[in-house]
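Extended Data, record P53-induced
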Amino acid sequence: MSKSMKAIDIKDGKGPITNLFLNADTPRPVPGEGQALVKIHSFGLNRLYNVPPQAGKTLGVEFSGWIEELGPGNHGDFALGDEVFGLAYGGAYAEYLASSTQMLFHKPKEISWTTAAAIPETWITATQSLHLVGCFKAGDNVLWHAGASAVSIAGIQLAKVAGANKIFITAGSDDKVEFCVSLGATAGFNYHKEDWVAGILEATEGYGVNVIVDFIGKNYSQGNFEAAARDGRIVQLASLSGSKLAAGLDIGLLENKRLRWEGSRLRSRDLDYQKKLRDLLAGYLPKFVDGTFKVPIEREFSWKDIQKAHELMESNQSKGKIICNVD
């Protein structure tokens, strides 16, 4: 097997979308202890956040493919030729990826390569946010901001199956709100037209929501405090509107309601923590097979069109995952 491979690279190591290109002379990874070398079929796109040191320079964290080589060590029930999908610290925008077998899933034959590549990062993040960080309990009310994002699409469905009382979302268009309601949200609020805080308080008769998962940051922090129920949990996954809070943020609500506001990043978690999440999500695989869980795909691209794929993601027009196929 050649020691080089094709992978998506970044000209000068940084820069705009136009700096992404297909590099045909990238070193092929060698699987280490407890790792498998996976031949990539498809990979999912995700917004770029702080990259952990073990990620390497190649982008991409979720993928589907098959095992071509196993490194030394214990690999559980994984074997050469197995069709798999999984989560990595980085490196999925490539022909080959070395991944810990502890972060692989066996791909059921009923799930397509595209769907499989769309599951790992988003559904594991949603599972973590709802259960491990958000400490969800059956009967809780939940709010997912950026409702049509892939993580919130997963979160809506996870919350419904777990016994949420009411599930709310915010989104930037009526079309996205309707889409989220079709997936199981109780109600949604178009933030361009509606006061989502007032809407939630009215829908809950002043009670509020027990778990809030937020990607927005600065512009929503005060509203989150107001919409949260007493002893509510706010999970901060990103800060798309800015991370430096505006003057006048009333932390009295944080104190008086006994709120917990916790930040979280999946990629910086250690392997044992991520394996725990993998095992949690693995228990839900039958729901992907029988169609209970929907994995909407906005669009598929050839990885040769990686710039177009990223342009679509940055446009914020998508409802679901954007997938690239390695062809």
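Summary. DSSP finds ten helices and 15 strands in the chain.
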